[in-house]
Structure formats: C-alpha cells, structure tokens
Amino acid sequence: MVNLNFNIRGQEKVAASIPSTHGVNTSALSAKPVKKPWLSRLATVGTLAVISAIGIDCIGLVKPAVGQTAASLAYHLKQTGAKMYSAYWCPVCRRQAQLFGDAFSQVPSIECFPAGRDRGFNPQCQNVGIEGFPTWVIGGRTYSGMMSIEKIANLSNYGTPSNTNDPVKICDYKADLRFYERNPQMLGRKISSTQSDLAREWQGIRRNIRGCN
C-alpha cells in the first residue's frame, strides 16, 4: 500500500508532509540538520515502482486470477457496490488491477487525482477518508492495501447479492455469475438478438440452479 501521509483540509495539503514537485521541501530547510521523513517514504515508493517494473510481486506472492474468476468477481463487485480507490501514479494499484486482467475495466474504481497529482484531491476520496492506495470499500468497510482475488471474494461475500431479497433477482444474479465464468468475454456486454446460443446458455444455467426452476 502506498501511504499518502498528508492531511487534507478542503483542497489544501499540509506542505510539510509531502515534498514539492522538485523533490525539495522548502519549509523543512534550516541551518541545522533536520530529519526528512518523506525521504524514506519516497524511497519506499521508488522501490515499489522498481519491483512493479520488473514484475516481482512482494505482497504475498499474489497471483493473477484466471479470466473466468476475474470476470465473475468484477460483476459481483459492481452489483454489490464495492469500490476501489486508487491513484494513477501508484505502482501497487497497477499491480492490483493486473490481477483482474481485462476484467478490471468493469471493477468500480475511483481515481483520486483525476486532474493530476498536484491539482487537488477527488472529493469522493476525501469524503471516504482515503489515506493510502489502493483502498477498497466493501460492504461499508474499508480495507487498505493490495489484496488477493480470493480475499476480495471472501470479504465481498462472493456468490451472495447484498442489495436484494427478491428470489427472482437472486436467481438472475447467480446465473450471471456462472455465465461470466463460462463467457468472460461477455462481461459488460449485453447479449444481442444474433447471439441466441448465448441466451439459451444463460437460460439453461438459470434453470439448473437449485430453487430457480
């Protein structure tokens, strides 16, 4: 997890907590040697960037999910209102996204610096109290740092919709999960009138779910 280590009041950042764009914190300069805690933070971020660039995963040796698993989990996260908060410059966020592969495009994700790192903090991130990246909000609870596909699935109660008690919608949801496991390429797309085979496949999946006949 990349820690922001700054306080936000409105759109203002505390200058002493983050170095300037030139790597020099002018507010910390004095005649006496002073500690610069942000140097260690920069070193940590730099190390993560190098690790990410050469493809080494030091966070639990997490492996990417197969396409079927990633697709159905992305659908589940979207249906249950989960969100991932990230920053474009965060190497750990990129690694988290890579675990989902192409399915990440369907994972609800909020960029906390949409206009650039020095151009304000996204109010959506501020309102949630984001302090580091990536941060997940799942089921109303906040989880910091990169997580495995399995952990995200467990925390989000994969296989159980959280926003309905309607038995018809629950059956549709379960059928969707199994359908996307078989057809990950259809994630985020509607079955067209020319894809009758896929429509019949979905209907067959639904009929075979216990209690959904």
Secondary structure layout:
Elements: E1 2-3, E2 8-9, E3 12-13, H1 37-53, H2 67-80, E4 83-86, H3 91-100, E5 109-111, H4 123-128, E6 132-133, E7 135-138, E8 141-144, H5 149-155, H6 167-182, H7 196-207
Parallel strand pairs: 4-5
Antiparallel strand pairs: 1-6, 2-3, 4-7, 7-8
Helix pairs in contact: 1-3, 2-6, 6-7
What is the highest CATH level, the class of the largest domain? Alpha Beta
* Tally of DSSP β-strands: 8
Q: Helical segment tally?
A: 7
| Helix percentage | 25-40%
Helix and strand string, N-terminal first?
EEEHHEHEHEEEHHH
Strand content: 5-15%
Structural class: alpha+beta
Kindly identify the CATH topology of the largest domain: Glutaredoxin
Mean pLDDT: 76
- The N- and C-terminal alpha carbons lie at a distance of 45 Å
By CATH, the superfamily of the largest domain comes out as Glutaredoxin
Major beta sheet summary? 4 strands, mixed
Q: Provide the CATH architecture of the largest domain.
A: 3-Layer(aba) Sandwich
Low-confidence stretches: 5-64
Largest beta sheet: what is the strand line-up? 5-4-7-8
Q: How large is the radius of gyration?
A: 21 Å
Total domain modules: 2
Coarse shape = elongated
Task: Describe this entry's structure for a reader.
The chain folds into two domains: 160 residues, Glutaredoxin (3-Layer(aba) Sandwich); 41 residues, no CATH class. Helices cover 38% and strands 11% of the residues. The chain contains seven helices and eight strands. The strands form three sheets. Strands 5-4-7-8 form a four-stranded mixed beta sheet. It has a two-stranded antiparallel sheet with strand order 1-6. A two-stranded antiparallel ribbon has the order 2-3. Helix 1 runs parallel beside helix 3, helix 2 runs antiparallel to helix 6 and helix 6 packs across helix 7. It is elongated.
